[in-house]
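Table S2 (text version). Query chain:
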Amino acid sequence: MKTAIFDDLAKKLSLVFAAFACLDPSGLHAQEIVADGNETEEVSATELTEAADRAIERGFEYLIANQNPDGSWTSESGAIDIGGTSLGLMAFMVKGHFPGFGRYGEPLNEAKNYLLKKAKESESGVMAGMYEHGLFTLAMSELWGMTRDVEDNKAIQTALERAVEVILRAQSPLGGWRYSARPDAGQDTSVTATVFVSLASAQQAGILVPTETIDRVVGYLRDQVWNEQTGGFGYQGKTGTTLACTAGGAYVAQLCGKRDTEWVGAAIRYLENSPKSFSREEIGYYYYAHYYAISAMVQAGGDHYAKWYPQIRDSLIKAQQPNGSWHETEKDYPNNTPMAIIILGTPHCYIPIYQR
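Corresponding structure-token output:
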């Protein structure tokens, strides 16, 4: 399984190597610009600007100030606690902050403990609906072996393995997932994306994911929801393609090993050619859509990412609220702020599932 990751020194070295991997000029970064007449200088199209770094830090301050006494992050009504807390942890992890370490060590420990407590309380192993279950599974996978207390590793492993079992049992006959953890609940592109990204992360961590499960996901995406005319993905069928579904569908297909196929390439073109891609007013679930879009561009590599990241980076910097959040009009939705931080922090390359 993941024994090697339990070696703290080895894990930290792997983070360093991951950060250096993102500097590969043949991959995501290198560009030339004209400066002072005919001279050129190499710059990184994807480096974090000072403004972006400040935005991330202000986002951290907001999350810490608004963390509940029990360690969770929730909506104002107290709902979406599993998803909000899972994404909150992921937001800090994107910049290398983990439970028990550094200035955010204690708040992150409390968030981790909250999720583990909820996992123990769940008799079925299901963590709320499948959206939140997917986010919980992703957080557990990326936390495994990354906490100061080695005793946490076993608890996280147990919670992760149990969560993956739920996902495998809940896959529909067509290959996707929907809101309930049952194979007869149906499927849609949005839930399928959230759930499968967590499954891919668990597989990277050493959890067995059957090849059949992955093949069924590919079949669902390609045959049921991908529109060959537009190149995009629909929500529950080929019609009504959206940026959010296309971003999630493309990223999942890439994680399934279909990065270089024509149909995935068409989905990337759909995203890049949409005149609405960076309009918060015209795109429903803007932060959710770009949470997947940036990862799809990382997987697409080269110019795709280099052109996309600066645009979403600058859009998010402008959208940040005076209090450091990205709530806007969705004040009852706790996921915008951590998603914005994760997107802005993409160049840090600390979290394996967000790497190419």
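Notes on Table S2: The chain has 13 helices and two strands. The first strand starts at residue 30 and ends at 34.
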